[in-house]
Amino acid sequence: MADKTLDAKGLNCPLPILKAKKALKDVPAGGTLEILATDPGSVADFEAFCRSTGNELVESEAKDNLFRFVIKRTG
């Protein structure tokens, strides 16, 4: 279970990333943020976001046009 969940369904790039960046500030170090999105481009976006920020993409799954990501805040 994630420490916080962000509903980014219906939002297109770059809004899911921008909202996730803001939401991660409210997650303690070592905690997790779950993001729910419908933008297919968010898969590549969150992979790149985690690489560039140093956070860990713990889970990434797609089911019925819904994309779910879990990011662990590293610092």
What's the helix and strand layout?
Blueprint: E1 4-8, H1 15-24, E2 32-37, H2 42-53, E3 56-63, E4 66-72
Parallel strand pairs: 1-2
Antiparallel strand pairs: 2-4, 3-4
Question: What is the structure about, briefly put?
Answer:
By secondary structure, this protein is of the alpha+beta class.
Question: What do you see in this structure?
Answer:
- The protein has 75 residues and is α+β, with helices and mostly antiparallel strands.
- 29% of the residues lie in helices and 35% in strands.
- The protein is built from 2 helices and 4 strands, in the order E-H-E-H-E-E.
- The chain has a 4-stranded mixed β-sheet with strand order 1-2-4-3, covered by helices on one side.
- Helix 1 links the parallel strand 1 and strand 2.
- The protein starts with a strand and ends with a strand.
- The model has no long low-confidence stretch (mean pLDDT 96).
Q: What is the CA–CA distance across the termini?
A: 19 Å
- Total of helices: 2
Low-confidence stretches: none
What does the radius of gyration come to?
A: 11 Å
Helical content band: 25-40%
SSE succession: EHEHEE
Counted beta strands: 4
Shape, per Cα inertia axes: globular
Alpha-beta content class: alpha+beta
Features:
29% helix, 35% strand, alpha+beta, 75 residues, 4-stranded mixed beta sheet, single chain, 2 helices
